């Protein structure tokens, strides 16, 4: 029996007109649509007269529901997966389902379309040749500050999501840890109250200080300028800790990355890392 296909379908992040013709065709033709929130997806389907069967698949039930969806795919049923908005799996559910499909040798086909990351970046005015998507920063202040400290030497443009309630606190952490860099705040992209604010971190803090921030927030932060002074020995440790978590990188790889990004000689980076590791081991 021929297996079904799993389609990963990008859906509008606000304006329903942003759905692609291909996405509409796939949503009509599959045997089942798995959705992060069936109530939310139903609005999109009703708008375009699509009557395909729906089932929920979200963070809290993805582990439990995935086997039954995989079983349907193995029996020849085509399935589309959609999140509430944008491209599934990008700070949204979908990872477990996609990986189980791959394990079962089920064909996985992406249906590209809206993404808040790319939409915000395209209108930001900041460099787009290299960027780093960070998802949501930690909610707790201590962990969030450590998170940004690990990015002090990052040269690429950085893109992240944030809740409106924490946006000002996050901007203050960015200003204190990364400096008064250029930043762009994109709010409610493609929706009625879409807003894009550009300026330095301090300018955005001042602009938002007396406002009640609402809606979906995407923040874009400029990377460290190449002309900035080389990193200090102390500044490389948070970066080393972040890179160390990637099991694919050897010590040589990590030293090379830090040296390239900070402008410090490789030998100096290596000596500082060794000194730190010895101190950590003795604790």
How would you describe this structure in keywords?
five-stranded mixed β-sheet, alpha/beta, 11 helices, Methyltransferase, Cobalt-precorrin-4 Transmethylase, Domain 2, 283 residues, Cobalt-precorrin-4 Transmethylase, domain 1, five-stranded parallel β-sheet
What is this structure, in a nutshell?
It contains eleven helices and ten strands. The chain is an alpha/beta fold and 283 residues long.
Helix proportion of residues, in percent?
40-55%
| Strand-residue proportion | 15-25%
Biggest sheet strand line-up = 3-2-4-1-5
Order of helices and strands: EHEHEHEHEHEHEHEEHEHHH
Q: How is the biggest beta sheet arranged?
A: 5 strands, parallel
What is the CATH fold-level name of the largest domain?
Cobalt-precorrin-4 Transmethylase, domain 1
By CATH reckoning, the class of the largest domain would read Alpha Beta
Termini separation comes to 59 Å
Structure, explained:
With 283 residues, the protein is an alpha/beta fold. The chain is 41% helix and 17% strand. The radius of gyration is 22 Å and the shape is globular.
SSE topology:
Layout: E1 5-9, H1 21-29, E2 32-35, H2 38-47, E3 54-56, H3 62-74, E4 79-82, H4 95-103, E5 107-111, H5 116-122, E6 131-133, H6 141-149, E7 157-162, H7 167-178, E8 182-187, E9 195-200, H8 201-208, E10 217-221, H9 236-244, H10 251-262, H11 266-282
Parallel strand pairs: 1-4, 1-5, 2-3, 2-4, 6-7
Antiparallel strand pairs: 7-10, 8-9, 8-10
Helix pairs in contact: 3-4, 6-7, 7-8, 9-10, 10-11
């Amino acid at each position: 029996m021929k297996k079904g296909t799993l389609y990963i379908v990008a859906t509008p992040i606000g304006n329903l007109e942003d759905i692609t013709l291909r996405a509409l065709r796939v949503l009509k033709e599959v045997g089942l649509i798995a959705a992060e929130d069936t109530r939310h997806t139903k609005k999109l389907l009703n708008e375009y007269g699509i009557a395909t069967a729906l089932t929920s698949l979200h963070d809290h039930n993805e582990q439990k529901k995935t086997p039954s969806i995989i079983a349907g795919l193995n029996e020849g049923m085509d399935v589309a997966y959609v999140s509430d908005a944008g491209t599934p799996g990008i700070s949204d559910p979908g990872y477990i389902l996609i990986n189980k499909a791959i394990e079962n040798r089920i064909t996985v086909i992406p249906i590209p379309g809206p993404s808040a990351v790319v939409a915000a970046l395209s209108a930001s005015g900041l460099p787009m040749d290299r960027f780093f998507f960070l998802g949501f920063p930690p909610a707790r202040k201590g962990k969030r500050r450590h998170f940004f400290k690990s990015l002090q030497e990052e040269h690429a443009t950085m893109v992240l999501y944030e809740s409106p309630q924490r946006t000002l606190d996050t901007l203050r952490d960015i200003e204190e840890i990364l400096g008064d860099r250029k930043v762009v705040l994109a709010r409610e992209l493609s929706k009625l109250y879409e807003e894009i604010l550009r300026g330095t971190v301090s300018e955005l803090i001042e602009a938002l200080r007396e406002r009640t921030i609402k809606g979906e927030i995407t923040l874009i932060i400029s990377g460290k300028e190449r002309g900035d002074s080389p990193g200090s020995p102390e500044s490389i440790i948070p970066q080393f800790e972040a890179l160390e978590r990637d099991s694919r990188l050897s010590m040589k790889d990590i030293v090379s990355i830090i040296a390239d990004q900070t402008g410090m000689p490789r030998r100096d980076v290596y000596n500082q890392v060794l000194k730190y590791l010895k101190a950590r081991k003795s604790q």
